[in-house]
């Protein structure tokens, strides 16, 4: 029995060799991958080798108790479904097993049909859980009608390469300016791959300090640092079987770059503060809007990590480089937001079309999307005119800004911040020049790129 395109991984924990053997034969007959353990220690060691989807655990394990093993198994592998089996079935033990997190309860002697039923139930549960996680991720991204249709040769080439990459498990590096759709395409890659029914998990590298990002990625144990009040699995574990999307990878500190490199090489990691090594089955897709070769040459990014990340490199064109798509994307967003507002989609006037084509779109598709959303709100008429757009777009092609000229402070700030960022080698360096925190700068940049500022 498969989850997505891979077999169910089942752990059998029983001290009786006969029962283990019977279960193995039965489960393998259903197409499951089976691991066996005779003791609680062996069960935990088997899970440490790699996660499982389902465990059959005998209530009596010689002198040890399956009931006590239950929470330890779940702490080790949060997605595990546990079915408790025993010859001594009483209502009370069943209730207690459920209370401790077992998914099901099976009295001995059992039949192959009962085992099949338990496996099928666990498979449906696992698929549902991962579909829900996917769906939530997609909704929170709120990508309106994400489209892979394009008339641009550069975008066409990028999507073609991505489709071929989806058939493999190789690491993919998505490159392109901010807002070009790297996140959207990472998700599309996941949906086209064999991992599509497992989670797609995003980690946004620059939003967190080194320690918090390490903990976000790999998890931590209680007491690992101030504020670590309980054991916490990281995003790597949340992405088990699926895809981990590392956004803005260039902003990662050297210490974390080393940890990530090891993870990519060995598919192994430790939760922060824990001596034990864990295994993961996760495909990594990374994205950057920076010139990573330059960062390598200047010693800010590890060359070995770059080679590990860009086994397949997909370069997304900026919106300026795909003028063929601009008006169709604009119309698509207009229709989307008009439908959401329950009004007929307005048309673009010829002057508006000209203006949209003349503007440089530094925030790319994201900026276009936000500009269309805003235009629909401020312009209730049936034809969208240039006045429905912010000054910077309406003024496309007008003379450059000068100090002392007729500009608002906000416009001057925006222009200055964008220019400093364009010339500084890193976000940190730009923040230093501007005399503000890197996190403040990061927020400002997001605001500008989203077309709000
Ligand atoms: N192919 C597409 N179809 C529809 N909308 C798109 C597409 N690509 C991008 N967008 C829009 O642009 C927004 C930004 O896309 P995305 O977050 O993927 O960009 P990014 O390159 O990852 O940006 P950043 O580097 O800032 O994270 C999306 O939320 C979506 O609204």
From TrEMBL:
Cited SUPFAM superfamilies: CheY-like, Homeodomain-like, P-loop containing nucleoside triphosphate hydrolases
Matches recorded under SMART domains: AAA (SM00382), REC (SM00448)
All copies of domain Response regulatory, residue ranges: 9-123
Domain of life: Bacteria
GO biological process, one term: regulation of DNA-templated transcription
GO MF annotations, alphabetized: ATP binding; sequence-specific DNA binding
PANTHER family on file: TRANSCRIPTIONAL REGULATORY PROTEIN
Record protein name field: Sigma-54 dependent DNA-binding response regulator
Lineage: Bacteria, Pseudomonadati, Myxococcota, Myxococcia, Myxococcales
